[in-house]
Amino acid sequence: MDVDKDTNVSGVELTEAENELYDRQIRLWGLESQKRLRTANILISGLNGLGAEITKNIILSGVNMVKLHDDKLITEEDFCSQFLAARESLGSNRAEASLTRARALNPMVDISADTQPLKEKSSDFFKQFNVVVISGESNKELQRIDSICQELGIKFYATDVWGMFGFHYASLQKHSYVENVFKHKCISKPNEKVKYETISTPRQCEVEYPTYINWIDFDITAPKYARKLKRDGPGILLLRILQVFRSEHKRDPSYKTRESDITLLKKIRDEVLPNSSLSNEALELLFAQISPAVAVVGGVVAQEIIKVVTKMEAPHRNLFIFNPETCIGYVETIGVR
Amino acid sequence: MAAAIDGVLPATLQEFVKKSKVLVVGAGGIGCEVLKNLVLSGFTEIEIIDLDTIDLSNLNRQFLFHREHVGKSKARVARESALSFNPDAKITAYHDSVTSTDYGVNFFKKFDVVLSALDNRAARNHVNRMCLNADVPLIESGTSGYNGQVELIKRGLTQCYECTPKEKQRTFPGCTIRNTPSEPIHCIVWAKHLFNQLFGESVEDEDISPDAADPEALEATEGKDKAAEDDKEKNNDKEKNDKEKDNEKDSSNSNGNVVRINTRQWAKDCNYDADKLFNKFFNEDINYLLRMSNLWKSRKAPVPVQWDTLLPGGASSDATELARQHHKVWTVEECAHVFANALKELSAAFLKLEGSDTLVWDKDDQPAMDFVAACANVRSHIFDIERKSRFEIKSMAGNIIPAIATTNAITAGISVIRVFSVLQARWEQCKAVYARLRLNGRNQILVADAFFPPPNPNCYVCASDPAITLRIDTKRVQIKAFRDEVLIKTLNMVNPDLTVESTGSILISSEDGETECNEEKLLSEMNIVDGVILKCDDFFQNYELSIIIAHFDAEREDVLFEVIADKNQLQPKEEAKIPEPVVTEPSTRKRAANGTDATADDGPSTSKRSRPTEIKDDDDDEDCVVVEDEDDDFEEVVSAATDKLTVESPQKLVTKRKPSTISDVDEEITEILDSSDEELAGPTKCKRTKLEEPQPATSGVEVINID
């Protein structure tokens, strides 16, 4: 039972203020995890509602540094879920508009903004981070950044929410973590009432995570996949449709052109997978980013980042889909033969 | 504010969001998140209620609050912060208890939906009843660590919050605490009682002194009849004489134990000398226990420790550095230092109090926590039990439920998504959802029930004519205790009236002063004996309940009453005495329920029922009751004990239970389901699945062959 002895946190000591502030979470994931969080640097690119949710959760957890990155401006639509930007910030840069409230969440975290377009960012920029989280980008750009992260050994997350539907994809290369294994041991004596004790033992695991291109290349129309698609629902199909929409139209469906965009979505649906079970109704809930759904996906993504940073528990491998109708969130493993 | 922008939401949903009135009960971890989601979705009529104020340890997740808000009202600060997200919302904040009579059924009727984000069972039970009565759909939520849960409660459609048995509180028999501890928690409970004996409010059942006589010797030689009882008394008297040597002017209470108040006086008389107190608790009392040889026949005997031997140079004057090492397991010597220093601080604070005021133990009060950590560890050392760090002891002693931002965000998100469905009356979309740490057998991390579990026909809250059987020692319970412990604390009523069914005479009145004279009377003195049926009515909750009395003679260590929701549960243990109405002659005298006492809010939940799927909200729920030892035969027993000793430790890695019956989602262990089992019928079934062997290391992640 050799447990990964990470040397880089052995010198870290939490201050009394940190111990107090993080008390309730240290009781859950332990001191070692909290120290690991303390050394983590995270990039959040895309300060839409989802970016704001992830940012909030990550800052509250007590990481070392968070970089808020966006070159877009705050629009009316952002006020459906982007609570880090004040009303007055309409028209200003989304990352910069989020700074004040982000910092107020936890003064112990180093938070800064960057407004240079992602396209202009080279591998030098990404080096400083342990985890990179990107939303609102095209598959092409996501793939480019994932490759950079591969080279640098950085953990990569692509995530998005359209209306009430959302996903994340984890590209973590080789990831090692510890998980607790529970076993039952009978502790009662022969003549007594049977009693068991649950014993937890840590176990070291190492798992390979497929790159993002595996999702781009993934064929959801394959007959072999049909049974799974039927069982888990059409969420994965919806993701494909929305990403096709984004690359074809260089934008997401807009509430301003609601009806015509729904028509466009239906068209893509029927092209991608004719006779699918994806209902018209599901296409009604894909506009802007709706706060409660963003909270769910943003909460899941932030928890995944925490798992990755603390090396505790298995991160989702690798595609997570949230179905707002049932509120079921499930994970599919893409790209593993 | 999604609903304020045309085209974002489908038109019907947009209308509902714009015009609906929503009540949020609780502005803690889930409440903050819910409020944010509501204002951003475009709800404009929101009311929020919370009686709590902001604490530093809330700030890692209750993101509407910042450092400068510590000490202020949660509801009010949450309102201010949420308004900055959407200045167009109308939010009314109440810094108040939801069980206050200001919020009656008519208050609840104002709302289209209620979201409860509470951290304790008493308030949850109350909100459940109010929503059932007002016929308002309730979205009930809770989190604990990585686990979260959201469920709809709607009259006639779903189970109510009280339909399912609640998780049992972990409880310990008093004699284990006093004489034969075997786990760290026993020593921690003992240390808290010691604190109360020296500085806190006197509680009769919290005596820390060893039993006066060997309880196991008595058991062996005596029957349970009255004569034996008398012997016991005599025996105790004799033993008591031995104890006089301990320089205590002991008197004996009816249980034969040393009356605690004398320990307090004695400690004061010797000026809280650390040396003397330490030796009494950890040497003399232990030596006394050792004399009861029966106790140690099958147990390892304790080894007393002595102050002079541990600390030949006396206690260091400053142990504050030491006490700050929260994660270190202190040595016994270090514990003695911490003990001495904490004793000094506590006694100084105690002596400054006026009149009969006492200190209140609080996990966040440094010397109080130091004292308990040190004493628990010294006692653990004596009994050869593993010692714990101050940090771990605080978890157990303070019953702290770990809480993180992400679980709260996910849970609150699901709650508000459910609100959307509720407003559109899409009930089939409102099945309960659980957030988990690990994937289930179908690779789900957010799991939904496959169906609505039907209401429990025996539920003593939502059944059409609810009734319970109450096993109670009518010769030992007074009317006042019946009201406070049974009706208010256990059955969660707020301001009950109690009458005898056959005669209509009033035992307890909700009107001030009407039945005061009954308060000190025993039930039996009021002719409330086996078989009598009582009618209880809480006008405020609009809740009526029949209570069938089943008398039993409680043993000393027994709880004095148990609520049995399902009559069939009575059979195995009792010759079911189904009431053949006894002729009663109830008093016509009046008695009063003290109106001011009547708010049960935040009182510890004393329920022994277990609600398999329940989880609490993140806050520091002080729910902690020590009742009798685990009694697995009585799953349906809802009950309280007079013996409020204990603590439930929320985060134990070592839990005792039967693996084959694990059905709760709020235990880490249920997370390990065999993920290779793909063909389970549905999520509900998955949850109830028997625990399988954990997956082998290589399949830490399930691989689905897709291509």
From TrEMBL, chain A:
Pfam families: ThiF. Residues 22-323 form the THIF-type NAD/FAD binding fold domain. GO terms for biological process: protein sumoylation. It comes from the Eukaryota. Signal peptide: none annotated. SUPFAM superfamilies: Activating enzymes of the ubiquitin-like proteins. GO terms for molecular function: SUMO activating enzyme activity. One of its GO terms (cellular component) is cytoplasm. Belongs to the ubiquitin-activating E1 family. PANTHER family: SUMO-ACTIVATING ENZYME SUBUNIT 1, UBIQUITIN-ACTIVATING ENZYME E1. This is GH23591. It comes from Drosophila grimshawi (Hawaiian fruit fly). The gene is Dgri\GH23591.
Automatic annotation (TrEMBL), chain B:
The active site is at C175 (glycyl thioester intermediate). Zn(2+) binds at C160, C163, C459, C462. Residues 181-308 form the Ubiquitin-activating enzyme SCCH domain. CDD domains: Uba2_SUMO. The keyword Nucleus applies. Residues 11-459 form the THIF-type NAD/FAD binding fold domain. The keyword Acyltransferase does not apply. Residues 205-219 have a biased composition (Acidic residues). One of its GO terms (cellular component) is SUMO activating enzyme complex. Its main location: nucleus. GO terms for biological process: negative regulation melanotic encapsulation of foreign target; negative regulation of receptor signaling pathway via JAK-STAT; positive regulation of antimicrobial peptide production; positive regulation of Toll signaling pathway; protein sumoylation; receptor-mediated endocytosis. Pathway: Protein modification; protein sumoylation. ATP binds at residues 26-31, 50, 58-61, 74, 119-124. Residues 221-251 have a biased composition (Basic and acidic residues). Keywords: ATP-binding, Metal-binding, Nucleotide-binding, Nucleus, Transferase, Ubl conjugation pathway, Zinc. Residues 470-555 form the Ubiquitin/SUMO-activating enzyme ubiquitin-like domain. It is found in: Nucleus. Belongs to the ubiquitin-activating E1 family. This is GH15287. It comes from Drosophila grimshawi. The lineage of its organism: Eukaryota, Metazoa, Ecdysozoa, Arthropoda, Hexapoda. The gene is Dgri\GH15287.
